[in-house]
Amino acid sequence: MRLAWSLGLFGLALAGLLAAGNSCSTLPAAAYVPPEIPGAHFVGNQACYDCHTNYVRTFPASAHGRIHRPDLAWDGATGCESCHGPGSKHVEVGGGRGKFIINPRNDPARCFQCHLEAQAEFQLPQHHPVVEGRMQCTDCHDPHGGDIFKTASGPAMARLNDSCAKCHREQTHPFVFEHEALREGCITCHQPHGSINRKLLVQSDANLCLRCHAQVQATSGEVYIGKIPHAALLQQGSCWSAGCHTAIHGSNLDPRMRY
């Protein structure tokens, strides 16, 4: 029963991720306006190929490649120019970083035009400092690659964890006793864009842990988790703040993550 319930949740989460990945492809034509570059006109992806070969090759397989559609065209703008603006003047001067071209990396507002849910999450009390300009969307995401996460190898959750590990090395390095939740991905416990809870947690109390660590109600009224009585302990706060499982990401000393 619990396995079926867990698989059901996983299916819903996967469906949500796929829906998020398709967000650009389902936008109405009027929902997104490409950047403007005075005096420039659209030239198409092939004009970018000679200088940006790797990007042009991988882009059609990327999540953002879905924006390359005729019904999302503005005077011929599709693909690269949807985010970087019309490229004619950039091509005329022979290219060059920042020459008559828009770099969306420096402006999260470009991403927020499509990713409205992420924009809302960044307004929550606890969030990664993207809107403050201390981080960029591309620090974690690859806008051109076939995978939206930065690292291009390994299972999907491993790639997501790799993105987090670039900054959060202490929490993601190998442990002798690993918290199994890390195998499912950091987003099992954390909301990466923003949260109302500290540390970007999905929930701030013991209910976060109890989603995986099932309780067993005894006839005496005691609650057991892993054959250990927890009724009194659960009343003291979160599992990691009550002086018990302080090594929540993993431990090199204790299989129960107590230090």
Structure, explained:
- This protein has 259 residues and is mainly alpha-helical.
- It folds into three domains: 36-102, no CATH class; 119-202, no CATH class; 205-259, no CATH class.
- Helices cover 30% and strands 6% of the residues.
- The protein is built from twelve helices and seven strands.
- Strands 4-5-6 form a three-stranded antiparallel sheet.
- A hairpin with a 5-residue loop joins strand 4 (216-217) and strand 5 (223-225).
- The longest helix has 20 residues, at 2-21.
- The protein is elongated, with a radius of gyration of 23 Å.
- The two termini are 33 Å apart.
Oligomer: single chain
Largest sheet: 3 strands, antiparallel
Helices and strands, in N-to-C order?
A: HHHHHHHEHHEHEHEEEHE
Helix-strand category? mainly alpha
Strand order of the largest sheet: 4-5-6
Strand content: 5-15%
The low-confidence parts are: 1-30
Give the overall shape, derived from the CA principal axes: elongated
Question: Overall mean pLDDT score?
Answer: 79
> What integer value in Å does the Rg equal?
23 Å
Helix content: 25-40%
Q: Give the tally of structural domains.
A: 3
Q: How many strand elements?
A: 7
Distance between the termini: 33 Å
Total number of helices: 12
